[in-house]
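Exercise 7.
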Amino acid sequence: MAPGTGIPVAMERPHFIGIGGAGMSGIAKILAQRGAKVAGSDAKESETAQALRALGATVHIGHAAHHLADDASCVVVSSAIRADNPELARAAELSVPVVHRSDALASLMGGGLRSLAVAGTHGKTTTTSMLAVALTELGLEPSYAIGGDLAGPGTNARHGGGEIFVAEADESDRSFQKYDPEVAIVLNVELDHHANYASMDEIYESFETFAGKIVPGGTLVISADQPGAVELTARVRALAGPDTAKIVTYGVAEDADVRVHKITARGLTSEVTVLLGGRLLTFTVSVPGRHYALNAVAALAAGVALGIPAHNLASALGTYTGVKRRLQLKGEAAGVQVIDSYAHHPTEMTADLEAMRAAAGPGSRLLVVFQPHLFSRTRELSTEMGQALALADASLVLDIYPAREDPIPGVTSDLIVRAAQAADATVKAVHDKDAVADAVAGMAGPGDLVLTMGAGDVTDLGPRILARLAG
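Solution. The predicted structure, written as tokens, is:
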């Protein structure tokens, strides 16, 4: 039996509360592929729920106590599940163990597998996906768990027959501290997730703990450019002991171990040349933007740390075609392209807007429909979000998508609108999502790019905008 093919006893009959979520569904899919009897519930019907059923899982829509089977071996939850969830209460009545999503994933990454964990405030999903696609292309049959669906295979998780497990490592609730990877990537370190972190010092401490979990003889691959990552590198080196992981830096910095020599934009792709092991290596990244090119370099450095030949991996990285919601082209109508972006933090917003600006043709305008994500993030970063929107020619700002949070008095999307206006941006608040398609149709002309942006349900507007433009 290949490493990692077994199912922990506690996971033989798991019940997932919120099984349709990006992180939860990935774990559920892997368990189902390994032969577990998977069940769960989610708030609404979705393609993810249908995909899970196709793998043999039982998926209930809505949350109710009777959805939890009496013979469930455990209940898997994420930090987004509230304490008053009826299925969670039923689990307590039945004395069914409750397992956090990160613990479930950690158990799947064990069993003799060589694990690679991708962390950072931004870019985790893309970088994890690049590795999953490239390793699959090389015939290494990796297992992977990602926070988004790959554009090619169309899934966020897979149980592979090989010895490598690639996982997106979430820092938002400190759950990435549960993993013991052979290789870890840290793309960047910034203040975010304000409900869980009060300061940058807390962020650094959390990432230090994550880096300290790398197995003896393992490798930390980390940015040599991003200020937070540079500070983390210094902190890790200051704490170095006999079991400290080897550190490999990457980026444009002259002292980077894997140095980016040149990034050349070619429409919706980039050509990247790196200096690695004293040799120049050039490869193509089939998504636009400097930040995606740097993600590919991080993936390259991590794969080499696992012992994969650099030239083979570089070629395989060129087969990556993107992740759903990461600058995903939704379609074109009346000469207008509609692209979907998951960006919801100012740094991500700026990166995607700059990438789209570079990809736009002469005379093309960049129009944005932005939906803020979380009240706490808006409270802390509304000024920076508004400044990012100044990179667009015009923006529509929707109401805040609350996700797991309750409203905060005085915190609305108007904070972003005012900040954008102060930065001389052309921006307008739209409180009715049903009015967005008409508003965009009245603004956009042939050659323009429309970017739907945010981590909430703003993604649903892309097809509606295209239909309105076509009609």
